[in-house]
Design goal:
This protein has about 260 residues and is of the alpha/beta class. The chain has a single domain (about 1-200, about 245-264), classed as Rossmann fold. The protein has helices at about 1-10, 10-20, 35-40, 75-85, 95-105, 170-175, 210, 215-220, 235-264; strands at about 25-30, 45-50, 65, 90-95, 110, 120-125, 125, 145-150, 155, 165-170, 180-185, 190-195. The protein starts with a helix and ends with a helix.
């Protein structure tokens, strides 16, 4: 669904996605998160490596580096990650990688303050509507939920002038004192994306009558036909909405990264 919508709404991004090669996306395997499963669903090739190889693997500015939770990388890899981003590379990290990678590699921007979440679900909203990474992620009718898997790490923004909060949650703020769900940190010629909780595994709470509608209704809202062979039995609109929201976000990141590399 994400690929089909991008083809309709952002044809240049669709062309970029069609040209992605496995070497364009380097995924560091994790124990708790598996972003590569979202990439597989999006039919995006990638290169997977264990965390220990980050010390020696060759990285180039045109690549997207994905570090799955928990982000336990060798200490010697931290300056390599920082240099990679400063040179124009893009980092996409999740949950505990906040403390293990983002905080030490990009000091003075964000941190974890030792207060993890409970197993929880919170509604989310876009803050930066003009950011191209968020194009098509949510419209006025959407009300996606974000699963805070038990012991997820809230993001404390240390320097608001340097950190762009893309997606937030007022309910997250009320419960845990931090509103940020997804952030963007420009660093040198590159950028860092970080998300709370685990990206590959999202569940929702069906809080409204709209959420409880069948999944086919979400296709109707997006003015799309249900594809032949789609397995939607037992899926609600709320289920599909949460999956489609997160899938479109990472597809946007990949497409913009590929386009930027080609322009460079």
């Amino acid at each position: 669904m994400a690929r089909a919508r991008i083809s309709r709404e952002a044809p240049r991004d669709a062309e970029a996605l069609a040209e992605v090669e496995a070497s364009d996306i380097v995924v560091v395997s994790g124990i708790y998160d598996h972003v590569e499963q979202v990439l597989e669903a999006l039919e995006m090739p990638c290169t997977r490596i264990p965390s220990g190889e980050l010390v020696d693997v060759g990285l180039r500015p045109g690549q997207l580096l994905v570090i799955n939770c928990p982000g336990e990388v060798p200490e010697r890899a931290i300056p390599r990650i920082r240099d990679f981003v400063a040179a124009g590379g893009s980092l996409f990290a999740t949950d505990w990688a906040l403390k293990n990678v983002v905080e030490p590699a990009f000091p003075g921007t964000v941190e974890f303050r030792q207060a993890p979440t409970a197993d929880d679900v919170v509604p989310i909203e876009i803050l930066d509507h003009d950011n191209p990474f968020l194009a098509g992620v949510m419209d006025d009718r959407d009300d996606p939920q974000w699963w805070l898997e038990g012991s997820s790490y809230p993001i404390t923004v240390v320097d608001p002038a340097r950190v762009n909060v893309l997606i937030s949650s007022r309910e997250m703020d009320r419960r845990y004192g931090e509103a940020s769900i997804a952030i963007l940190i420009p660093w040198g010629d590159g950028e860092v994306f970080h998300m709370v909780s685990h990206y590959y595994l999202q569940r929702t709470e069906l809080r409204t009558d709209r959420h409880r509608l069948g999944a086919t209704n979400y296709y109707a809202e997006k003015d799309m036909a249900v594809p032949m062979g789609a397995e939607l039995d037992g899926l609600s609109l709320g289920d599909l909405e949460s999956a489609a929201t997160s899938s479109r976000l990472i597809a946007n990141v990949i497409a913009r990264k590929k386009r930027k590399g080609e322009e460079r």
